[in-house]
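for the recovery benchmark. tokens below, seq after
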């Protein structure tokens, strides 16, 4: 195919996608100095200054670095909010790029939508959106900055998706705050947000500080205590075929088998805080390491094709000992429990 024909085909494809509502180039940046000031956004204060991290990556066996750009608190007026993910659009349907950790192209691949006519409207001012993303993303990417806003602006109501996840509703129960539920994209009089800077795959140090302060406030003296926990993924996606056998291997090393998804969010914080070793197949349960004490241990059973970076990066930030056991094939394949037993005997002193 000639270069000219390829350009024509790509242009036709773009035009077709635009007609069905896919507009990946339809966005605005709050911080672009070369553009005129966005008239619906007012900068309130700084959330965090520029900082950087260097972390050893066991997957590639080399150090990986990342720079976090400065993040700010903005007040946005007369905008459209998609409340589950916390994505914000201008009143004429342009994506506010700082409302997501993803690049605009990646976001539109997963959520190819620009709002047109939005009938739902909320007149409340200075609303804070408590998102309802998948647990791992919610905990690592959203919750820290949201809790900061809730503490910093005590008179602001909290906006929540009507079908919010269980852990979101459990958090709401301990917040002394007016709550507004909505069932989909909604036009908001004004909303407060902390900007995001395409840091997906990394946890911001300021977010971790906020979450640790929150943890200290919700810890109880009567917390349930278990020194060793295996967080089972049985019946969930990415669970190996023989997870029962994996559980038995950990039982042999005095681990309690816990379904973390069945535990109240605040109780989960208390439980994990008292845990010395937290183990399991790779999943969102790993991010509970945020609540653990320094020098605790994480045991990550990871598939060679699904070994995510956030887990060992959070452990590094928390000074937690990160151990990994890798198994081959598909994530649903069986784990060699004989090799697993050898591995556990090396790293755990009964």
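predicted aa per position
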């Amino acid at each position: 195919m000639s270069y000219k024909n390829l350009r024509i085909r790509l242009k036709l494809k773009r035009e077709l996608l635009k007609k069905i509502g896919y507009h990946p180039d339809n966005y605005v940046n709050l911080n672009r100095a070369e553009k005129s000031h966005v008239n619906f956004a007012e900068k309130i204060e700084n959330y965090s200054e520029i900082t950087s991290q260097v972390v050893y990556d066991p997957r590639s066996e080399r150090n990986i670095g990342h720079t976090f750009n400065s993040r700010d608190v903005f007040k946005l007026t007369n905008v459209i909010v998609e409340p589950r993910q916390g994505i914000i659009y201008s009143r004429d349907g342009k994506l506010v790029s700082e409302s997501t950790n993803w690049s605009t192209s990646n976001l539109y691949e997963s959520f190819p939508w620009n709002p047109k006519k939005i009938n739902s409207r909320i007149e409340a001012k200075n609303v804070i959106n408590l998102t309802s993303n998948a647990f791992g993303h919610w905990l690592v990417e959203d919750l820290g900055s949201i809790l900061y806003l809730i503490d910093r602006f005590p008179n602001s109501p909290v906006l929540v998706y009507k079908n919010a996840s269980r852990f979101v509703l459990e958090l709401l129960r301990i917040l002394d705050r007016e709550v507004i539920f909505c069932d989909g994209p909604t036009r908001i009089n004004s909303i407060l947000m902390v900007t995001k800077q395409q840091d997906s795959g990394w946890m911001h140090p300021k977010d971790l500080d906020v979450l640790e302060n929150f943890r200290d406030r919700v810890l109880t003296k009567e917390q349930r205590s278990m020194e060793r926990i295996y967080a089972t993924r049985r019946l969930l996606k990415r669970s190996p075929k023989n997870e029962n056998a994996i559980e038995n291997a950990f039982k042999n090393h005095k681990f309690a088998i816990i379904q973390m998804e069945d535990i109240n969010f605040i109780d989960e914080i208390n439980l994990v805080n008292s845990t010395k070793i937290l183990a399991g197949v790779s999943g969102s349960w790993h991010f509970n390491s945020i609540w653990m004490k320094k020098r605790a241990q994480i045991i990550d059973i990871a598939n060679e094709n699904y070994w995510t970076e956030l887990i060992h990066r959070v452990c590094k930030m928390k000074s937690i000992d990160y151990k990994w056991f890798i198994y081959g094939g598909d994530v649903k394949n069986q784990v060699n429990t004989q090799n697993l037993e050898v591995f556990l005997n090396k790293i755990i002193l009964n």
